């Protein structure tokens, strides 16, 4: 079995399990001697901000001399980046080796139980736990949750610390239609006696998370209560307990990134106070300031200005529009947009309308991608054009500025097909 065979096998797995829950994960991990029990893990969940928070944490830990594994999704440029070591994707050969180990266990699950087939995400998560729990042990593993927490395949280990980056209305068809519904699902990241750092804005969701942390005897550390951010233009000052870190300037722009970075800084301070790590604060700040995370307000071309962002729900689109208006001297930008089914596309486009000169809709190759007709019916506006060949359109774009957004899966495909030269 070679690398392409391995990827084909992974991608052929079902996307969602017939029965929600972690029983398939537990069965497979048990038959692999429970490698997840061997890791020192930090669990990161939330609607938006997970990937950036993981990147800040990883950079600071690596800069402080630790070996760090990360598990993130979806991939933007290469499949292997899902499982990374010190920020570098594991090798093709390692993917092949992991599939050789996990495939027979997955087949046995199907044949010997009534739990159903393992999903694609369950397979990849199992590979990650096997890699960091047995094949290549590391100092820390930062595990980004997939969809929700309660039934997510990452929810099978006890972390040393949990981070809940945000609660927004996304995946409402699966997680529930209200902030409280989603808080009840994502609140499952809170484990007994494990500190939890969270940034939750909705009052009803916030009350639920506070109460749950208290019931679980989990030390609650809350943004805007314990953690204070004082923002001034590009800079911000971070305050927590007796700590005050001034004049922090991130490479990643936007107030939401200041919040993500602050969650990561708090996690590092907590680990330092518990003597789990020895933290050099200067190295931590240097590393966090220099983090770039692909597909997050990423300027891929200067002339003409082209920005890529994976905003895919109301909250992330709101942050995107606000950040672009604050940081770029442009009244309007053209918007190349595509999205997947199940997203609040009408509302997302309504928010983007405040920025859009012209909307260019297009389709991309993904099983849940919206069709031309669905996109055109999603907003009633005069400034819409449909693009058949988005690669040619991007390559010949010569307007004032172009924002490419709507889905992480869409921007992943764009980055694989278009060579941007600044």
From TrEMBL:
Its cofactor is Mg(2+). Pathway: Cofactor biosynthesis; tetrahydrofolate biosynthesis; 7,8-dihydrofolate from 2-amino-4-hydroxy-6-hydroxymethyl-7,8-dihydropteridine diphosphate and 4-aminobenzoate: step 2/2; Cofactor biosynthesis; tetrahydrofolylpolyglutamate biosynthesis. Its EC number is 6.3.2.12, 6.3.2.17. The keyword Hydrolase does not apply. It comes from the Bacteria. Residues 44-267 form the Mur ligase central domain. Residues 295-396 form the Mur ligase C-terminal domain. GO terms for biological process: folic acid biosynthetic process. It is an enzyme of class 6 (ligase). GO terms for molecular function: ATP binding; dihydrofolate synthase activity; metal ion binding; tetrahydrofolylpolyglutamate synthase activity. One of its GO terms (cellular component) is cytoplasm. Keywords: ATP-binding, Folate biosynthesis, Ligase, Magnesium, Metal-binding, Nucleotide-binding. It holds the Pfam family Mur_ligase_M. It catalyses: 7,8-dihydropteroate + L-glutamate + ATP = 7,8-dihydrofolate + ADP + phosphate + H(+); (6S)-5,6,7,8-tetrahydrofolyl-(gamma-L-Glu)(n) + L-glutamate + ATP = (6S)-5,6,7,8-tetrahydrofolyl-(gamma-L-Glu)(n+1) + ADP + phosphate + H(+). Monomer. Belongs to the folylpolyglutamate synthase family. This is Dihydrofolate synthase/folylpolyglutamate synthase. It comes from Staphylococcus hominis.
């Amino acid at each position: 079995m070679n690398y392409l065979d391995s990827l084909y096998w992974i991608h052929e797995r079902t996307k969602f399990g017939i029965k929600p829950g972690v029983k398939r994960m537990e069965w497979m991990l048990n038959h692999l001697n429970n490698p997840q029990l061997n890791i020192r893990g930090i669990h990161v969940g939330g609607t938006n901000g997970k990937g950036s928070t993981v990147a800040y944490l990883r950079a600071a830990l690596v800069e402080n001399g630790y070996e760090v594994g990360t598990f993130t999704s979806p991939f933007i440029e290469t499949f292997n980046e899902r499982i990374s070591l010190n920020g570098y994707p594991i090798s093709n050969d390692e993917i092949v080796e992991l599939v050789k180990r996990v495939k027979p266990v997955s087949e046995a699950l199907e044949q010997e139980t009534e739990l159903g087939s393992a999903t694609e995400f369950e397979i990849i998560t199992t590979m990650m736990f096997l890699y960091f729990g047995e094949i290549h042990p590391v100092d820390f593993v930062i595990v980004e949750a997939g969809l929700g927490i309660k039934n997510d395949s990452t929810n099978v280990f006890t972390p040393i610390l949990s981070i809940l980056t945000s609660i927004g209305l996304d995946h409402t068809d699966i997680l529930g239609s209200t902030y409280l519904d989603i808080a009840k699902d994502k609140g499952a990241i809170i484990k007994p006696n494990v500190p939890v750092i969270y940034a939750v804005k909705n009052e009803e969701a916030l009350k639920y998370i506070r109460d749950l942390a208290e019931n679980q005897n989990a030390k609650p550390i809350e943004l805007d209560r314990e953690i204070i951010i004082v923002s001034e233009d590009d800079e911000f000052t971070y305050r927590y307990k007796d700590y005050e870190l001034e004049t922090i300037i991130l490479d990643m722009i936007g107030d939401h990134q200041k919040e993500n970075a602050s969650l990561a800084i708090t996690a590092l301070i907590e680990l330092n106070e518990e003597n789990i790590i020895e933290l050099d604060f200067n190295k931590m700040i240097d590393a966090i300031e220099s983090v770039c995370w692909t597909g997050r307000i990423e300027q891929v071309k200067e002339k003409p200005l082209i920005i890529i962002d994976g905003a895919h729900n109301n909250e992330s689109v709101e942050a995107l529009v606000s950040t672009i208006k604050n940081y770029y001297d442009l009244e309007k930008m053209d918007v190349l947009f595509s999205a997947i089914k199940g997203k609040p596309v009408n509302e997302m486009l309504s928010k983007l309308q405040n920025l859009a000169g012209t909307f260019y809709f297009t389709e991309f190759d993904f099983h849940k991608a919206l069709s031309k007709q669905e996109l055109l019916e999603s907003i009633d506006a005069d400034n819409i054009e449909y693009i058949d060949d988005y690669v040619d359109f991007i390559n010949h774009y010569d307007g004032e500025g172009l924002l490419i957004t709507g889905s992480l899966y869409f921007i992943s495909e764009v980055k694989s097909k278009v060579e941007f030269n600044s």
